[in-house]
Amino acid sequence: MTRVVLAPDSFKGTITAADAAAALAEGWRSIDPDAEFVHRPMADGGEGTVAAFAAAVPGATAMPVTVDGPAGARIETSWLLLPATADAPRGTAVVDLGSTSGIELLDELRPWDADTTGFGQAIAAALDHDVSRLVVGIGSSASTDGGTGMLSALGARFLDASGEPVARGARGLAGIVSVDLTGLRAAPEVRVLTDVTNPLTGPRGAAAVFGPQKGLVAAADIADVDQGLGRLAGLLDIDATLPGSGAAGGTGAALVVWGGVLAPGAAEVAELIGLAAAIADADVVITGEGSYDGQSGDGKVPSFLASLAAAAGARAMLAAGRITPDADTALFAASASLTDLAGSSDAAIADPARWLVAAGAALARAN
Predict the structure, then answer these.
(1) Separation between Cα atoms, residue 74 and residue 52, nearest integer Å
(2) Vertex 46, ends 331 and 320: CA angle to 5°?
(3) 122 membership: H or E segment, kind and range
(4) Tens digits of per-residue pLDDT, 145-193?
(5) Are 157 and 100 in contact (CB under 8 A)?
(6) What is the DSSP string of 22-34?
(7) Angle between the N-to-C axes of helices 352-366 and 17-31, in degrees from 0 to 180, rounded to the nearest 10
(8) Strands (E), the chain
(9) How far apart are CA 27 and CA 8, in angstroms?
(10) CA 302, 270, 99, 148: dihedral to nearest 10 degrees?
(11) For residues 99 and 80, is the Cβ–Cβ distance under 8 A?
(12) 220 partner at 20 to 30 Å CA-CA among 29, 91, 106, 311?
């Protein structure tokens, strides 16, 4: 009997990690009906982080909350309460930025006005529950506000020359003259999950690298936001070159100021969901993501899973929405591209579950 661990990331914007795992299992079972499956949907701090914990941790409870979304409109979402443990006797809260202030929540990009207020409001709701530990995932951000929205929701004040609160989002960065942290809520133990090592400012900073994805296109606009983030770093007394501080439009820096510890997202999620133990006696580990490309080898879920599988003596396999020519597939015993199976990227995106079933069958045949 083949023991198969299914640990894909979400295929961003098209299918969740849990649904991807289920589709892969269906496809594999069509070729190998006696196979045993262990589902461990993964995340690296971005979209699907809460879902990954919910699927893997027995007793996890979704806690509904209403927050201000990245465009300011109220949205219904939730954070996740994990059961009490010896290390966290009052439980652990998992909050992800993607489901509260994420870019997928926008109908159109709002580079100047989108912010992280909703993320902070969800964190505040978890604090009201008096949890011992907070795990936050900060991928899929819609804004470049330096985490000011999040900190404001937790009691910080960002003031202009007249002593009034500045505008939300990147628009307000240029006007910040002083910061009042006296009302900032105390932080419990905070682990910050991210797969980004970019600094806050500079050519590899939040504005320069990620700003264009959020609608900051003009060089002058990127420079203005970068300058605003640098000014904010000075007011918050944080090193703008700190690796990871540029994650989520500078929210990484804000969380460090609050007391959070930045950690590699995939590794932290894997530890907290017991992935290594699940893989220990596996024959095959299947992972995947929407686009497996030249950047996927730098701390992303597939490369991390490949290393875990190798250490356990299991065969690592990959299913991805697309596999680009510059991607390193040598890590995997077999791989399957949904784009190739479907005949085009549009067809793969239109029905990812169907083509993930096909991918699961193709990988089983290659086993």
Answers:
(1) 25
(2) 35
(3) helix 117-128
(4) 999 999 999 999 999 999 999 999 999 999 999 999 999 999 999 999 9
(5) no
(6) HHHHHHHHHH-TT
(7) 50
(8) 3-6, 36-39, 61-68, 74-82, 92-96, 133-137, 157-159, 178-180, 189-194, 261-264, 284-292, 315-323, 334-337
(9) 14
(10) -100
(11) no
(12) 106
Q: Residue written as tokens 């892969």?
A: 24
Residue type, 355: W
- Identify residue 89 by its one-letter amino acid code: P
* Residue whose entry in the numeric block shows the structure tokens 């699940």: 278
Half-sphere exposure of 347 (CA within 13 A, CB side): 10
- What sign results for the dihedral spanned by CA atoms 134, 192, 215, 52? negative
Alpha-carbon gap, residue 206 to 266, rounded angstroms: 21
Mean of the per-residue pLDDT values of the chain: 94
Q: Is the pLDDT of residue 296 over 70?
A: no
The predicted pLDDT at position 271 comes to 87
Those residues with Cβ within 8 angstroms of residue 213's Cβ, 6 or more apart along the chain or in another chain = 103
Coil, helix or strand for 105? helix
CA dihedral (136, 140, 142, 146) in degrees, to 10, reads 50
Parallel, antiparallel, or unpaired for β 334-337 and 315-323? Answer: parallel
Q: Distance between terminal CA atoms of the chain?
A: 13
Sign of the alpha-carbon torsion through 186, 191, 192, 197: positive
- Tokens 């023991």 found at: 3
pTM of the model as a whole = 0.86
What domains can you pick out in the chain, each with its CATH number?
Answer: 3-40+274-366 (3.40.50.10350), 49-265 (3.90.1510.10)
Q: What is the pLDDT of residue 182?
A: 97
The token pair that represents 169 in the structure block: 């989002």
Q: How far apart are CA 251 and CA 192, in angstroms?
A: 10
